[in-house]
Amino acid sequence: MYKANDDRYENAVVRRAGNSGLQLPALSFGLWHSFGDDANYGDSEKVMLKAFDSGIFCFDNAFNYGPSAGAAERMFGEVYRANLKPYRDELVITTKAGFNSGLGPYGNFSSRKTLINALDGSLKRMGLDYVDVYYSHRFDPNTSLAETAEALDSVVRSGKALYIGISNYNAAQTKEITKYFNELHTPFVVNQASYNMLNRGVEDDGLIKTLADEHKALVAYGPLAEGLLTDKYLNGMPDDVKIHWSNEFVIKHGKDELVKKLNQLNDLAKNRNQNLAQMSLAWLLHDKTVASVVTGASKVNHLEDNLKALNNLDFTNDELTEIDKIVKE
What we know:
This protein is an alpha/beta fold.
């Protein structure tokens, strides 16, 4: 029978989401990849429990994570019920709806019916009475933001979520929906967005500043740009490399140019006694608006390697300037 490590918080790095009471581990455990229908339960259980034993108490899910949709939530639910249920009060469990959450017209986006129906299914799959953060996974161009905000507010009022988040909303969309949340007194705390050293969209758009001004937090997903910010491509990129839509533009000047930049960043990481992936994770946390970075790991050794990023979170101004110079030139 599983018993959590008594020293799990001894070296944990915990950050606050804006000025809210929500606190998150600097690294959260994401189930976006590797936890679908083909996942091995034993391997999944081992890496999730290692994460919790290492001070990672936030598990980030979504209705569509799999494949197939709902599979990652089911896998998490099995591990939770078998091992983690006694620790529910310590855990921050999140999920989202808006992508492929069912057949028919209510299977996507952020209408009231879509969001409320999806959460009921997610809670059932995970074996939970509530989630700690419930996200609208994407902006709905055909539904008023007021309706989306009111739906999310009602989820909190019903006791099915403690806090509310949004994901993949730009600065203008975030600013507008925040107005509605403020009027409703909804505990809206965080926007989860794609962000990494190569992908500065949240900076260019002004989203980081908008969140800071509103005393909200950013949770960064895709911190390693689908493996680009690891040692995987330092010797070149194959023609068939697949990149998530949120990071596709980083190859706009060609793969050879990108590989050159990756090697320059890797040299800088070596000077910090980190590998490229570790520096990439640490870099995201240099901005206090970033409350947590969502990382995935299918193997324990990958998780342990990511955790080493927390050993050196300090950057000099010269290092930050050099990173910007390499990436933006």
